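C-alpha cells as discussed.
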C-alpha cells in the first residue's frame, strides 16, 4: 500500500467495517509516520483494489492490525491468499508468530483464522466500540511451509493472477501472485 492507494483502501475499509472503520488520515499516518507498519494491497491486473492488510512488526511478532477483502469478492479465496502473504511476510522478517484481534461475532474471519491454525488465546472485554463488543485475541506460529497457490475459484475469476503491492520505504514494490 502506498499513498496512491489510500482513497480506495479507505472506501473499502468503510464498506468492510462500517462505523468502526479507519479514517483516511489514520491510513496516511500508518504509511508515513509509523516505522513498524507494513501494509499491502491486492489488486487485479487493472490495479482495481480487491483487498488489503496492515501489520505492525513488533520485535519477534507480526501483528495483523487490519485486513479486508472487497465484499463483492468474498468466498473466492482472496482472504486465504492475503493471510498466506501475511505468513510470508512474517517468515521474511523472522517473526515467530502472527497475532491479531477479532470481533467475537465475526464468524467469517474467525473461520478463516481457525482454518489457518490460529488459536484463540484470550478474550478482551469490550475491546470494540460501534457496536461495543468483546475481542478475541488469536495467534499462530509462523509456518515453515506456506502455500503460494491459487484456490480454484480465484484461478477461474483471475486467470492471469493478481498483484500485491506495498511500500518498501523507498517507493512502490510489487509482486505477482501466485508467487513463483
Ligand atoms: C474475513 C474475510 C477477509 C474473508 O475473506 P474471503 O476472501 O471471503 O475468504 P476466503 O474465500 O479466502 O475463505 C477462506 C476460508 O475462510 C473461512 N470462511 C470464509 N468465509 C466464511 C464464513 N462466512 N463463515 C465461516 N468461515 C468462513 C473458510 O474456512 C474458508 O475456507 P473454505 O472456502 O475452504 O471453506 C472477509 O470476510 C472480510 O473482508 N470481512 C470483512 C472484514 C473483516 O472482518 N476482516 C477481518 C478483521 S479481524
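Sequence:
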Amino acid at each position: 500500500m502506498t499513498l496512491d492507494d489510500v482513497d480506495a483502501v479507505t472506501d473499502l475499509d468503510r464498506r468492510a467495517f462500517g462505523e468502526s472503520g479507519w479514517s483516511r488520515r489514520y491510513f496516511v499516518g500508518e504509511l508515513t509516520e509509523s516505522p513498524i507498519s507494513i501494509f499491502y494491497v491486492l489488486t487485479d491486473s487493472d490495479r482495481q483494489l480487491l483487498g488489503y492488510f496492515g501489520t505492525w512488526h513488533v520485535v519477534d511478532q507480526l501483528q495483523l492490525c487490519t485486513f479486508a477483502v472487497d465484499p463483492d469478492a468474498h468466498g473466492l479465496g482472496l482472504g486465504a491468499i492475503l493471510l498466506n502473504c501475511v505468513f510470508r511476510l512474517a517468515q521474511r522478517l523472522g517473526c515467530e508468530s502472527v497475532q491479531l484481534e477479532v470481533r467475537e461475532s465475526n464468524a467469517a474471519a474467525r473461520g478463516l483464522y481457525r482454518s489457518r491454525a490460529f488459536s484463540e488465546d484470550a478474550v478482551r472485554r469490550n475491546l470494540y466500540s460501534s457496536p461495543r463488543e468483546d475481542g478475541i485475541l488469536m495467534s499462530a506460529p509462523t509456518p515453515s511451509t506456506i502455500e503460494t497457490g491459487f484456490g480454484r475459484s480465484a484461478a477461474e475469476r483471475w486467470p492471469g493472477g493478481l498483484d500485491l503491492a506495498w511500500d518498501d520505504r523507498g517507493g512502490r514494490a510489487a509482486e505477482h501472485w501466485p508467487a513463483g
